[in-house]
Amino acid sequence: MMQKILQQLNQEVGVKGSMIVEQDGLPAVTELGKELDGEIVAAMASSTIRSTKRALQLLNQSKFDRIILMAAHGRMVFVDLDPAPAILLAVTDKNINIDLTILAIDGAAIRIKNLLMKK
């Protein structure tokens, strides 16, 4: 079911691929396009999550809700699936209306949270 949610998310304009990662950055469910290397995306996710959590602890902040990482050729959007111990990651094109895409990503995050909390 989570795979299907990721597949639906990937149909949104500008979304290249998506995955659910554990809190430590290890991939749990992936639905990445052919142009994305799963190992590289997972490594980037792990590094970003770890660094962000460390920085937030130093700033006495509890957690992040969303991270948007902008790069030369695209974006990575991380959404914490709290209280489930997982994070939704979506890789997007650079030149999209990020606000509309975030609505789709947030909708997928809510559906995934609901599934994870039923387990």
TrEMBL record:
InterPro entries: Roadblock/LAMTOR2_dom (IPR004942). It comes from the Bacteria. Pfam families: Robl_LC7. Residues 2-92 form the Roadblock/LAMTOR2 domain. SUPFAM superfamilies: Roadblock/LC7 domain. This is Roadblock/LAMTOR2 domain-containing protein. It comes from Uabimicrobium amorphum. The lineage of its organism: Bacteria, Pseudomonadati, Planctomycetota, Candidatus Uabimicrobiia, Candidatus Uabimicrobiales.
